[in-house]
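Standup notes
- DV: blocked on the single-chain target, sequence here:
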Amino acid sequence: MLYDLRYDAGDLAEAAREARRPRPRPVRRAVAVHSLPRHRWDKTVAHRAAEQERRARQLLRKRVGTVLGLVNTPDGVLDLAAAESVDVPPARHRHSGVWMA
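- DV (later): unblocked, structure below
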């Protein structure tokens, strides 16, 4: 428990009447913690980051598969113009998922 030493207006007035220094009273501090995701090795952040990373890998696989399907023609000739039509974002690193969770 944490205590602060504080003066009350009544303590100050009483000390002035008695011509002495005021005596501080201990006041207990109250702190409300609403959420602390990494407190006591909570795995929620790690699970969220792993989920985001898994989704990013699935999306990357899907888009690369689309590119391969468009580029690889049955004749064996590569259609490079088709590769430009599909947007493949860069793979996301787990670090981003951990800090944004």
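- Follow-up: The longest helix spans residues 44-71.
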